[in-house]
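Session log. Operator J.P. requested a structure for one protein chain; no other inputs attached. Running the standard single-chain path with C-alpha cell output.
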Amino acid sequence: MIPGVTNRRRFSDLSEQQVLALAISSEEDDARIYRQYAEHLRRDYPASAALFEDMATEEDGHRRRLIDLHKTRFGDTIPLIRREHVAGYYARRPVWLIENLGVERIRDEAAQMERDAERFYRTAAARTTDADTRKLLGDLAAAEAGHTDRAQELAETHVGDDARDAEERVAKRQFLLTWVQPGLAGLMDGSVSTLAPIFATAFATQDTWTTFLVGLAASIGAGISMGFTEAASDDGQLSGRGSPIKRGLAAGVMTTVGGLGHALPYLIPDFWTATITAMIVVFVELWAIAWIQNRYMDTPFLRAAFQVVLGGALVFGAGALIGAG
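Structure written below.
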C-alpha cells in the first residue's frame, strides 16, 4: 500500500454535495494563492500585483455562487473536503516554490491553475444529475476557460507597455544581482585563483595525475568556500540581491567550474600535451569572463579583457615561477 493514498476518496465516489464542497474549498485556496502572489509582487511589480488581485476577486465570486447553490440544495453546513482528501485530484505547488522564480513563472503557474480548474468543473458537471448544479458547474468551466482572455484583458488594463517594460527592467536587474554577479565572481575566482597551485604543481612535479588531483581539490575547495561566503555575506533582505541560497549556489558552482576547466586537461597522460591544452583552456576562460562582463555588466570589452587577462597572466606567472624553482 502507498502511505496516505488509502485515506483518500476517489472523485467518482464523491456525492454531489461533496463535489460542491470541494469546489468551494478549491476556489478559496486559489483566491488565497493569487493574493499571496499579489503581495509578493506588490513592491517590484505593482501592475502584476493588481492583476492577481483582480483574479482573486473573480475566484471569490465563483466561491459565493457555489455557496449559494449549496445552501439552496443542501443547507448551510458545508462538508470539510479539500484537494488532499481526493485521490488523483490536481494539487497546487506551494507558493514558496514558485514565487522566487520570477514574475513570468508566476504568470505561467496561474495559467496552469485555470486549466486545472476548468478540467475539474467539466468533469464534475458531466456527472451531476441536478440541472441547476450542472448549469453552474458548466458556467464555471467556461469561466475558467475564458480566464486566459480575461487575464489578457486585465494585463492590458494593469500591465501596459510602460509598466511591462518597467517590470522587465526590474526582473533583469534581479537576475543580474541574484545569478550573474555571484556566478561571474565565482567564475573569476575559480579561473584565476586556481592557476597558481595547478601550474606550480605541474611544473614542479611534471606528473599529470598529481596535478589533476591538486586542481580538483583546489577547485572543489574554492567552490565550497566561495559558495558559503556568498550565502553568508548578505541575506538579501536589505540589499535586494535575492535569495542567499541561489547566490551561494551560483558562486559555488561557477567557482568549481572555473577551476576544473584547466584541471581536467591533466587527465591527459602526456605532460606537455596536457599543459598546452590547459593553457588554451585558460585563454578561453579569461575571454569568456570578459565577454560576460561586457554582455551583462556593460563593461567595455577591451577594458574587461585587459583586466582579466592581466590578472590571469600574473597569477599564472607566479605559479609557473614557483613550480620551476
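Operator note: The longest helix spans residues 161-193.
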